[in-house]
TrEMBL record:
It comes from the Bacteria. It comes from Shewanella decolorationis S12. This is Membrane protein. Keywords: Membrane, Transmembrane, Transmembrane helix. The chain crosses the membrane at residues 12-36, 57-76, 82-102. The keyword Transmembrane helix applies.
Length: 121
């Protein structure tokens, strides 16, 4: 009885993880367009190499997301046990990594000018 209940909850968890990982694919056509435009653009702003790396990693990562999700989806459906849960979790970890790249891709520089605080009148 306990094994059947455990398997039932494991199935629900597996499908929940796969659903959460698949939801970003609904917006993928729009993301592809934006990422391609971002990769095609040329910048004249000199930024630190780390922020440029985060920017390119985010843009390429959003383009590659289906290449991460689809194999993990098929592997998670084909396996049984905790290995299937690990495969279902990989796309969510990739999304967390993309979030970190997004968070650090365009950090503005803090140039404070004392003249900005003055009243224009």
């Amino acid at each position: 009885m306990d094994i059947a209940i455990s398997t039932h909850y494991q199935d629900y968890l597996l499908w929940g993880l796969l659903l959460l990982g698949g939801l970003p694919l609904l917006s993928y056509p729009f993301v592809v367009l934006a990422s391609l435009m971002g990769l095609a653009s040329r910048t004249t702003i000199n930024v630190h190499w780390f922020y440029r790396l985060m920017n390119k990693s985010f843009l390429w990562g959003t383009l590659a997301y289906p290449l991460v999700y689809i194999p993990c989806y098929w592997l998670a459906r084909g396996e049984n046990g905790s290995l299937s849960l690990a495969y279902a979790t990989l796309p969510l970890l990739f999304l967390a990594l993309l979030y970190l790249c997004f968070r650090w891709m365009d950090v503005p520089s803090k140039n404070k000018c004392p003249d900005n605080d003055k009243d224009p009148d």
